[in-house]
Structures are given as C-alpha cells and as structure tokens.
Amino acid sequence: MDIFSSFGFWGAGWTGWVVPFLFGLSVVVFFHELGHFLIARWCGVKVLTFSVGFGPEVFGFNDRYGTRWKLSWIPLGGYVKFFGDDNAASVPDEAAVTTMTDSERALSFFHQPVGRRAAIVVAGPMANFILAIVIFAAIFLIYGKHITSAQVSAVQPDSPAAAAGFKPGDVVVAIDGRRIESFMEMKQIVSAWSGRAMAFTIDRGGMPVTLTATPAFTREKGRFGNKLCQGILGITGPTMSSDARVEPVGPLDAVRFGAERTWSIVDRTFVFIGGLFAGRECADQLGGPIRIAQISGQVATMGFVPILELAAMLSVSIGLLNLFPVPLLDGGHLLFYGVEAVRGRPLSARAQEIGFRIGFAIVVMLMIFTVFNDISQLLPKLWAS
To answer: What's the whole-model pTM score?
Structure first.
C-alpha cells in the first residue's frame, strides 16, 4: 500500500483527484514563489506577502522580517507581494512610489536596478526547473535507471516501419545521429515527429544498417483515457522482463540524468507548440486544471514516486509557461525590463497597463480554452459511467 492510500485518500469520485492535485500544485507553487522570495531578500527588497493560493486567507503568520506567510482559499497559484507593489502582479503603486523616502526606496522592488528586478523575476521559473531536477535526481539515485532495450520484437504489416524495412530483432542505436539507449526514449522521439522522415541507425545481427522511416500521424487514447495525437512507426518493443535492467546511479550522474529529463520536457514542449502550427499535434491535448487534477488522481493510485514525477513535470511546465513573453507572467515582466534596458528608461505606466490588460486577456482566453477541452473530454466519460 502506498503512503497516500494508507490515509484513505483514494476513494471513488472527485476526492481522488483533488487531494493529489493540490499536493503537487502546492509544492510547485511554493517553490516558484520561494525563488522570487529568496532572491528578493538577497537583493534587499522587502517582501510584504508570501501566499500559496489566492483570495481570502485560510491561515498565516508573520516572520521577524514582517513578511506575511499565508495559505489562501483558491489554491490555483500563488504570489509574492513586494514593498511598493499595488497588487499581486507586481504592478507598482504609483501614489506610494512617488512619495517614498530614500530609505523606503532601498526596500522597494520598483526602485531596484533593472538587473536586480530581472533576477528576482526569473528566479521563480528557475526554482521550478531546479525543483524538477532535484526530484528526478533523487528518483534516479534511489531507484536507479530503468532501461529496456530499443529492440524490435514485431513489425506491424503495412506500417511505416514495414515500408522502411524494419525486421524483428533489429536494435535501434540512433535516430538522426542521436544515440538511443532505450525503447521508451525512441518512442518519445518518434511520437513527437509524425510526418517527418527520420534516419534510424540499426544494429542488425552485429551489422550497422541505416533505414529511413516517416512516423504516421495517429489519434489514440492514452494510458488514462486522454486523447493523444502522435507519430507511430508500427513496431513493438521487447516484452520479456529479461530485456529490462536497472543500472545503479551515483550522485553526479543522478543530477545529470535529472537535468537531461528536465530538458527533455522543455524540448518536448517546444516540439509540441511547433507541431500545433505544423498540424502534427492536436489542440485538444492542451489541458487545464480539471485534466491535471484527473491525471493526478490516476497517477497517485500507482504510488508516491509517480506523483512526485508528475509534480516534477508540472514544475517544468509552470516554469516554462511563466517565461513566455506575455504581460502578467514573469516573461512579460522580463520583456518590459529588456525594453527598459535598451531604452535606458522604463515604459510609461500607460503602456505597461495596456500590456497587462492584453496579457490578462490572453491568460483568460487560454484558461477558458483549456477548461473547455477538459470538460469536452470529461463529460463523455461521466455519461458512459
């Protein structure tokens, strides 16, 4: 029995989704805001509020520096509010910043040099990436690296693999010059590049062979019933447990593997975005909080380690999303700071206000779209149950 089910959390219904979802999201949000908080403190900026969640406070306390640490009722994010901010989005209080004394300006986020402000803002997403690396590294260190040979056990008739000349017993060594260590790694690469010709380096009975195959575009149901648009070759991997092995991993290699796993998620995200515009991916794969909660509950039934892995992937996604140059997100602030560094002065308050309104509209539209996707996929399952 896993650590969560021992507390009786995983009953039927929505509670089996909510608890693991809130656990994972709260951890990710906490570390994101902690990144902002620590660098702000290091830069001498006064932090007024550190909140996990939005809305009314559930409970909280004040530390010796005057920061209010609190948990709020709407657990779908969080924020750090600095001295001189008008709101949680770090929009400056114009009336307050113009009347500050010199000692108050030294504590104000708004009056920091542009480099310090940029460092404070980028620290949040960086903390998310570091958290993911640490989680993945810990899993590799404790459980080792699980490897299943990239060997072909069967080739489906009339498939791209059959047309390319794949045969049972072939071992995929590299794809487009990139070395492949496992069947899962090969599958992840192939699934992201439907419609693109790829060069496969094969070990066939000790002899190197190069085959060119183009993964076919398919729409399938994923492990948890969600729709997946991906490329397939039409080959089956090894099924015997003897083909799988676990390699022990040392501390340095664990960190390296954790960083590689984190980067692979970033890379896959950009491939997905490019695939949306190229028609290789489906927009209905974009999920919002409902789908994340559903998947969290399903993953949690598999044990504590899978929910940690999901939290790490969610951490990477949130860190990357916040770096997009959309006003209201961290990336939008960095965009403004970049313009300020080039111009030698910040954008006008009016220009920034317009930018934040545009950013807010983009974020709201994206949330509506993802929630619509969630509901459209969830309702048929509820009707069928």
So the answer is: 0.82
